[in-house]
Here is the input.
Amino acid sequence: MSRSLDDGFRVLVSAGSKHGSTAEIADHIAKELTGAGFAVTVADPKAVDDVSAFDAVILGSAVYAGRWTKPARKLANRLVESGTTSPIWLFSSGPLGDEPQSADDAVDISSILEKIPARDHRVFAGKVDVDVLSFGERAIMSAVKAPEGDFRDWDSISEWTHAIAEVLAVRADHESAGPSRQVG
Ligand SMILES: Cc1cc2nc3c(=O)[nH]c(=O)nc-3n(C[C@H](O)[C@H](O)[C@H](O)COP(=O)(O)O)c2cc1C
Here is the structure.
């Protein structure tokens, strides 16, 4: 089932997050898409009920030890199992510091990309506040000498979101006027 912008083209924005900074990226994306006129649901991956109820999905995750969080991976699998044909965009948030990293270097989501024909997968820099980390996480951070701080680049997140909004607006327009509409 699909809907035009006027009917409330429904977009799901969901991100796996352990310490909140990736969830804030999801909130930012959701806010911008809401401002562009879409009916946006922003939800923790564990709280998403019906994955096939959306006309588009933006799914992201924080990166830990080179991987997505388990709830985000599970939601990706549920999307595959649902057989949805809605467009899907993926993002990862992890790299710390100001050096840009390629998607392949930052995170391995090849098993997800094999199953989901994502429109795009973007890697955004992340944030670490050492005070909220567990003892084990702190030990890892110190072993790999990762820098502490908030490296999220809101402008580049907004830019990516605007590009998605443009694609969705065309799609919503097309669907409101498309051949699937039945007359009589
Ligand atoms: C223990 C630990 C391991 C991490 N491993 C990676 C990693 O392998 N690759 C990466 O890009 N970022 C890594 N990060 C950085 C996190 O992905 C980054 O801090 C992210 O913004 C955390 O998101 P969250 O606050 O939503 O959990 C790691 C951070 C911690 C604390």
Observations:
- The longest strand covers residues 56-64.
